[in-house]
């Protein structure tokens, strides 16, 4: 699958558009229950920090297949929710699920929140569950989202702590590397760990125009499948790009290593790995 959307994106987010409105987004859209359940240990606390009230207008940034937007809509019963994402197929899943659940106060739109012309002051809460790390220019994105908030409105986001605290990525990356030295992403490059350092998060939000910034660290098991077979299918499909260009023997070695670590983490509750996140909140000045 390749991206076909004509949505307006900042040049720094073009690679993200190709990924999320292409094969990566399609894979997530095909497995929404798995990916939502993988974050289940963090979801309730994240929504609690968001503190959504009955009449709130909520912006969900990087809403994906829409779990956070739908849960926000259930709280903002006389308000409204707008979920934005780069992935058309994930947004299609979000719309279908919202309709199936009878939610009429939530809408979904393909947009790059870094540059999208939101109406100024039109939201009370902006939230992003593991989405804010992928902006090409995070300072610009936080400013644009802030302008969409009323003065005193809240930004709440969930991001990963460093790789050292996230066993799942260490184990999966080591297995799929098959002995290769993989390049280390630049700290400010878009990616899941680009907002893993508290000092960087606080500095970005302060410069962007937020105050009363709070951060809470949480560690919890991360679920990847009902059993080893289920988890192996999910993860090998998700990270299959890491095996591109390898010969058959090296590919087989990597997949055997992946299968071994997953088997080693199989429990009666499913395949579980240690993980850790930051929940950050800030007030738009």
- Residue stretches low in confidence (pLDDT < 50, at least 5 long) are none
Largest beta-sheet characterization: 8 strands, mixed
Rg from C-alpha positions?
19 Å
User: Would you report the number of β strands?
Assistant: 8
List the secondary-structure elements in sequence, H or E: HHHHEHEHEEHEHHEHHEE
What fraction of the residues are assigned to beta strands by DSSP? 15-25%
Q: What is the tally of helical segments?
A: 11
Average pLDDT rating? 95
Describe the structure.
By secondary structure, the chain is α/β, with parallel strands linked by helices. The chain contains eleven helices and eight strands. Strands 1, 2, 3, 4, 5, 6, 7 and 8 form an eight-stranded mixed β-sheet that branches. β2, α6 and β3 form a beta-alpha-beta unit. α2 runs parallel beside α6 and α10 packs across α11. The longest helix has 17 residues.
Summarize the structure.
With 285 residues, this protein is an alpha/beta fold. Helices cover 41% and strands 24% of the residues.
Could you name the key traits of this structure?
single chain; 285 residues; alpha/beta; eight-stranded mixed sheet; 41% helix; globular
């Amino acid at each position: 699958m390749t991206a076909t959307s004509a949505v307006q994106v900042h040049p720094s987010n073009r690679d993200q558009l190709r990924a999320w409105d292409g094969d990566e987004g399609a894979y997530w859209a095909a497995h929404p229950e798995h990916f939502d359940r993988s974050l289940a240990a963090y979801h309730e606390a994240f929504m609690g920090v968001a503190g959504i009230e009955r009449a709130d207008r909520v912006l969900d940034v990087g809403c994906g297949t829409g779990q956070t937007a739908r849960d926000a809509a259930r709280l903002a019963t006389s308000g409204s929710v707008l979920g934005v994402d780069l992935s058309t197929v994930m947004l299609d899943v979000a719309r279908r699920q919202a309709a199936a659940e009878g939610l009429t106060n939530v809408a979904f739109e393909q947009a790059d929140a870094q540059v999208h012309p939101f109406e100024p002051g039109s939201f009370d809460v902006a939230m992003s569950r593991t989405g804010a790390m992928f902006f090409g220019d995070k300072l610009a994105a936080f400013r644009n989202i802030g302008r969409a908030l009323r003065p005193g409105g809240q930004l709440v986001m969930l991001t990963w702590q460093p790789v050292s605290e996230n066993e799942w990525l260490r184990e999966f990356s080591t297995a799929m590397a098959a002995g290769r030295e993989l390049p280390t992403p630049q700290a400010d490059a878009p990616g899941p760990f680009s907002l893993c350092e508290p000092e960087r998060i606080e500095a970005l939000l302060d410069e962007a125009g937020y105050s009363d910034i709070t951060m809470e660290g949480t560690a919890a098991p991360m679920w990847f499948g009902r059993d080893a077979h289920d988890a192996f299918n999910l993860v090998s499909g998700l990270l299959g790009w890491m095996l591109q260009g390898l010969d058959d023997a090296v590919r087989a070695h990597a997949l055997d290593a992946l299968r071994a670590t997953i088997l080693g983490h199989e429990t009666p509750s499913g395949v579980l790995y240690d993980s850790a996140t930051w929940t950050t909140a800030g007030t738009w000045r």
